[in-house]
Amino acid sequence: MTRLLASTIIAAGLAAGVSFAGTAPAKAADCGTVTIANMNWASAEVLAWIDQIILSKGYGCNAELVPGDTTPTLTAMMEKGEPDVAPEAWVNAAREPLDKAVAEGRLYFASEALPDGGVEGWWIPKYVAEAHPDIKTIDDALKHPELFPAPEDASKGAVYNCPTGWACQILTANFFKAYGGADKGFVLVDTGSGAGLDGSIAKAYERQQGWLGYYWAPTAILGKYDMVKLSMGDGVTHDPAEWNRCNTVLDCADPKPNAWSKSEIFTVVTSRFKDAGGPAYEYLTKRTWSNDTVNKLLAWMVDNQATGEQGAIHFLKTQPQIWEKWVSPEAAEKVKASL
Predict the structure, then answer these.
(1) Which of 37, 72, 81, 96 is the most exposed place for a label (fewest CB within 10 A)?
(2) Is the pLDDT of residue 249 over 90?
(3) Cα 75 to Cα 238: distance, rounded to the nearest angstrom
(4) How far is it, in rounded angstroms, from Cα 82 to Cα 85?
């Protein structure tokens, strides 16, 4: 998850004047060999496999998966024109050079792969939110330490932090200070690892106990357990200057409430593939899905110990009402016949 966590400390937004690429030429084209970055986290991996299957089986491309990660993949695409497709590019960390490459016509945004974006914040279980409808914000939750008992001292409330070494660990600690967590009867719990953070949520659900802490989407955990994201507070928006001044700085003395910026997630393609892909490129301009869809698919993959390829096949077999909107009727029939 390093690419997600790095993006939390970079203030970014869509650059003004950058538009999405239009649809492909109407005539069919032989897209030939197309290389697809298979990035090293679950949501990106399964999307890369979905693209590989649809482009090869539905559109006759010689679609190949190649290893990737956000920064090296986008850098290679900008400098070398390869790979051809980055299905799930978290672009905040490379916003300026990427916008320059788009403006120069070297790369294109085919689609916003996840319109919801990468979502980060403090969450509580849905059953807690339903039982206590007054809890809408972080401040609301911190009024009730009794609802979120700390594992080592039930007289205190707990806020579960990010794993050690992740950038969001600094952010969560600073927000804990900014909202006066300690003064309100809470302790900040070090989860140690991603597995430890996941395990704390699973344990709370098994016992139907309260849980309060940092998490993000899209993820398998949020597909398996219904969680509600808390507001950072009325009128609290993302302030990039304050974010960089203090929120992301270790042990900042005077952090203030701030809001995470939306992590922009696009499908990025090279000019070569846009020009040569024809209907195959047009598919990528339509291929977009929600965090809720991805969360549920990732949860199925975890429960079944499925690979990205197996997750892609499961999605294509069980969710035609979603993916058939991305492709031509002829391509849909070819893909179905191949499963």
Answers:
(1) 96
(2) yes
(3) 27
(4) 8
